[in-house]
Amino acid sequence: MNNIQTLQEPTSVVSVATANKPIELYIFLDPLCPEAFAMQKVLRKLQLEYHHYFTWRLVLSTELTSLNCLSNRVKGCVSGVELDIHHPVLPSIAIKAAELQGKRAGARYLAKLQEYVLLNHQDVNSYATLLKIAEDVQLDMSEFTVDFGSKEAARAFQSDLYIKCEMEVDEVPSIVFFNECIEDEGLKVSGNYAYEVYEHILQEMMAEQLVRQPLPTIEELFLKFHTLSTAEVAFIYSLPEQIAERELKKRMLQQKLERLQTTHTTLWRLK
C-alpha cells in the first residue's frame, strides 16, 4: 500500500504514550470533509475494542488563511461589535476552544458539529451557530465565549497546522502511529482503509496478540456516542444494515432512541 509510510517523530511533538497505553495516534482530520465522516466509524470501533492500548490526539487539518485577522473579528463579535460572522475557519477554532475545557469536551463538540452538518440544521460557518452547538453539549458558555476569541484557541489551531506540515501529511484523513520508544519510527497511514488494516498495525506495533475488549450493548453505545448512523451501528457490531436498523427501531419504539432522517443517511440519537 503506497499510502503507508514510516517516519521519525518530529522533535516539536510531545509524546503522551505511557507504559499502560504504549501506542499514540495522531488523527489528522478536516472535521467537515466527507472522508472524516467515513473515518469516524473506524475510530469509534477502535476506541471501543482497543482503547486500552492507545492514546490519541485529534489534529485539525483544514487549509485556511488569514487566521490572525479573523481572530480579531471574533473578538469584536464577542464584545458585541458584530452580531454574527461567517468564515470557514470558525468551526476549527470552535473545536479548539471546546478542547480547552478538556479532550472529552472537544470530542463532544466535534460530534455535535458533525451532526449539525449531516442534519443541515444551520450554517456551521456561523459564529452564532457554533455558540448554539456549545450550548447543546453543555459547555461552560462564559468560558467558551472567551476562549473562542482567545489567542490560545488560535495558537492551538496553528499548532495543528504546523504538526501537519512537519509530519508531511498531505492527505486527510490520515493516522500516524507512534509507540512509546522515541527512537522507533512512526507509521503514517494516509486515507481510509478497512478496519482490519488498523488492527494489524496496532498488533505489529505491540508485537503481541491483541486482546479485544467486548463491545457494549446498544444502549451503552449511545451513552458513549449520543448520535450514530445506521451504518455506524452495523459496522461496529459487524451486522447487516437491515438487522442493525431492526434493532434500532425496537429501541425507538421503547422510547430510548429517536430517528433523524437526512437525505443521505439515517441518524439515531439518545432520547
Automatic annotation (TrEMBL):
It holds the Pfam family Thioredoxin_5. Interacts with Spx. Keywords: Cytoplasm. SUPFAM superfamilies: Thioredoxin-like (SSF52833). InterPro entries: Adapter_SpxH (IPR046404), Thioredoxin-like_sf (IPR036249). Coiled coil: none annotated. Adapter protein required for efficient degradation of Spx by ClpXP under non-stress conditions. Interaction with Spx stabilizes Spx and exposes the C-terminus of Spx for recognition and proteolysis by ClpXP. Belongs to the SpxH family. It is found in: Cytoplasm. The keyword Cytoplasm applies. It comes from Lysinibacillus piscis. It comes from the Bacteria. This is ClpXP adapter protein SpxH.
